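Researcher: Please translate sequence to structure tokens.
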Amino acid sequence: MKRTHILLLPYLLISNSGILLDGIKYCKPLVSTVLPEDIAQLKIGMYAENKPESFAEAILVVNSRYNEFQENIKMVQPKFLWKNIIPQIIESYQKVL
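Model: Translation complete:
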């Protein structure tokens, strides 16, 4: 992850992503085909349609605004640390058990 410049998440569907949390931990801006509202609200990367042209364009945007996205990630990192996420996951599972 340390050598990664931009985190690419070409998902069709997502419910929980460890790689996304690791990307935030290592302050990596992202391009994702899911979670458009979250990405836009947090300003941590770009949403792309699940098409090569859209994905490529989003990569170029993230690359050109890389420092801006990194600063935004730094501001939201505490919210997405595993130590803060795990209790939420456990609580969700306990509700359905």
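Researcher: Any highlights?
Model: The radius of gyration is 14 Å.
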